[in-house]
Amino acid sequence: MEGMVESFVRAAVFVLVVCPVIAWICVSAKKEKATRSLKAFVVDVPVSMRRVLAIAAVVFEVVMLGVFVAAGVQTGAWQAGYMWMGHALAFVCLALWAMASLQRLQVDGDVLRYRSVFGRTREAAFSDLSRVEVDGQLSLMRLYVRDKRFAVLSLDCRCMKNLRARLEREGVAMQDRVAAPMTKRRLVRAAVFPGIVIGAAISAVMSFVTAVAAIGGGMQGMLLLVPGIWVIVVPACTAAFAALALRGLRAIALQQKALRFSFDDEMAACGARGTSLQNDRWFVGVSNAQIVAFRRDYVRAVGKRTHSSSGDECTVTAFDGTKLTVRAAAPTLDELRAWFAREASDRR
Length: 348
What we know:
Layout: H1 2-31, E1 40-44, H2 47-75, H3 80-102, E2 104-108, E3 111-115, E4 121-125, E5 129-135, E6 140-145, E7 148-154, H4 160-170, E8 174-176, H5 184-216, H6 225-259, H7 263-269, E9 277-278, E10 282-287, E11 290-295, E12 299-302, E13 306-308, E14 311-318, E15 323-327, H8 330-347
Helix pairs in contact: 1-2, 2-3, 3-5, 5-6
């Protein structure tokens, strides 16, 4: 009977609380319309994402308060560690919300006004920009003024398309952050590195929450869990990202076997550097821990991009009829299809 009641309560919470909140966030995201102007716009974190962080802070406080009260009533032992855990989780969410709300790049004519996540403001002109680096794996864009870092922005920011178009119009080249010669090993490294960063970030948050709960609740023994968190989480995230990169390596291996060539030798011959390449012979990119690399004479067709439970994907058909499922970020798959269509039209 207790199991049925518990299941009913979980279902009710999901239907009456979780689903409406998710729907509200999705509707809010759709209503956020970026201006088409290239003269005046603001590059910032979408409001819907900031709302998620603010809501999460409140939810953590309320949930851990409920756990604290329920455990105290049932067992008679009022564990302050639950409350401190809620405070720590809420603090992390509010800190992320504050940083996301502060960071922005305002474009007003030829003037760039940037405010960092710590509130520091800088101002420059488009003519002062010396270079722009794009880190596709960490999803970051870095702007440099006289070879000094001026701004760091997420590629998921609102009006990022406007900024890219304006930089192209101003003649400011966007280059890959990785400048070393392209090899399979470096592509794997680029695909796996975000896993290390994400694992470290998760471990840092979990360690902070554990430490606050242990010290505030008088359970110092919980501090022994902190090293174990780092030992387990970071390798697990790294291994997960490495497993995702194997799909791309398999596709490269199939091409090398069918066409009898060496990927590293071909990249060296054409002088390829970084982690992305598009020419009349090759398409190479790294996106969402996935390596996308195809030689033109191997590909017979590229299917339309679809969305599945595993993310965005498309089907690449080889000249011998082999079909390969390619998963990556939507922009990368669209570029792959556009590259194939462009090269196919040039051959006609």
